[in-house]
Amino acid sequence: MHRLIPWLEGPRLLALLLMAAGGASAILGADRAWDTRNYHLYTPWALLAGRPEDVLPAGLQGFHNPALDLPFALLVMRLNEWPHLLAFLLGLPTGLALWLAWRLARAVFGTAPEARGPALLAMLGAAGGSVLRSQVGTAAGDTTSGVLVLAALLAALAAIAAPDWRRAALAGLLCGAAIGLKLTNAPYAPALAVLLALAPGARPAARARLLLGCAAGGLAGVLPAYGWWGAVLWAEFGNPVFPYFQAILVPGWDGHAIGRDARFLPDGVLDALTRPFRWAVSAAPLATEERMRDPRIAAGLLAVLALPILAWRRLALAQALLPLAGFFLVGFAIWAGLFGIYRYAFVLEALAPLLVLGVLAPLLRRAGRLRGPALAGLVAAAALATIPVPSGRAVPAPRYLDIAWPRLAPRAVVLQAEPPTAFLAFGLPPGVAFASPFGVEELGAARFRRQLQALLAQDRPLYLVSPAGGQGWARLRSWGLEPAPETCRRVCTNWSAQGVGPVVCALRRPGEAAAPAPDWPAPATRLCEAVAGPGLESGGRRGMALEGTATLAFGAGCARARLRVAGAEATALATTPDGQAGAGGVITLVPPQDGLVRLAARHPLILAEAACLAR
After folding, report:
1. Bridge partners for 532 per DSSP
2. By C-alpha distance, which of 138, 130, 136, 137 is closest to 33?
3. pLDDT value, residue 361
4. What was the pLDDT predicted at 557?
């Protein structure tokens, strides 16, 4: 091992980390997280493709700066037919983040041969973090923009090692760019200033030059990263961060008052300080929407508390860590006060192992050869204790994003009842608009309501897209529109469980017939094409859950069809017309002329397959 580490120094380690992260992303598959389905793809794609008729498909998130998501959209547009290559490329920023964690550890521990082991462990500690593991190859942006903050820290450490305002300006530039691309990185700006102010041995004038250089660089980084988008929002709404704080910044705003997400804010200082220790041992959703457990930030806080004592004992390593400890503590305090959302703390998560090992390494020096195994055991224990935030991954498909809509009438308007379905616009035929009554209600402004009313006033067929359970249908009724359940079919997409996406149904205007029913041009060849109307809900990757009755549409002209019930006898499912039950839960039948087959489950079951075998 000691011979291998020197060989991995420099470009070899970077190449290895990039290959490992890219490979992990390719194995995990396409990102289908909630935010990705809602705005990470739609917003930059709409900017590039031009969608002038669409009305708020991504709701308020559609006004986030799309610059960070532009590479993702471009990759999907250009490499969609190469899903493994696309996923591999999306994993590269994670490898770069780990390489920067290594470089930061080398900058702190020094270049001596005996420092390589602790530096490697610090990198591996970062690799086991909840945010990093859950965001490998995703469009979430916390890791991707966090790469710039980690690079800023590396530049800042170089700036204080030999006071140099140019390197401080570079640190500010990188941090400013990270903030411009994703505003939730804002806590790291004052934290970086504290790091520079704690430059050991620097005179006041040198510290002032470092801070001024960093501030100038930060401004230079924010302007190109966010300035262009802020200018667009300012010209349209009079607010460069629209829709946030619009009610405060623009008098007369008639929409909802939208501010920061306060769901995970602590109830006070004591709650803020104890939360990291609670999510270190419990997977309860204290700082995220779903389960998560990670001991790193709690351990990092303990290390920060111990550093002043070690520095007082004049341990050189502890003194070198003090600026990073200042960055960590200030960044944590501002993050906890502004957000409290764990994924926004990626940089703190990646930095914590370095602080912990920096405290423990000199304390365990007397342990001799046992020091390395003891530190390695600690890193391994942290990795085993960590439960990453669940990340939605798509089922394997020939494309990274595979979308097939049933046939809609020309020049149709598709109305979103519930998010996140904006990504489905990527697969719509030309001339079909996508609008969101949900988004209009979310923002609440009369200008958006008028925009949607003008679209609905056109003589165009209307369709609804919504979850299978009918969520959001009442919202459409408030606009005077009535879904026609008998016309409902499913969108096929690998970004939904078992490839069966949301329902799409024709809508009726008051006193008018419904739009032409969505249909498939040929008999159903897969489950998603056969599912019709309500009754079948997602049963995960095994198939569609059925507890009562439902209908399958195999298409007119289907001479023989096949069903398969997962993990149950075929007799658990009754069909009309009757079918012939076989082994393995298989049912074969002859559909009627219209291709519609009624299902009735004798007890809850999973329908795994449905397809027309012969015409």
Report:
1. 489, 551
2. 138
3. 81
4. 87
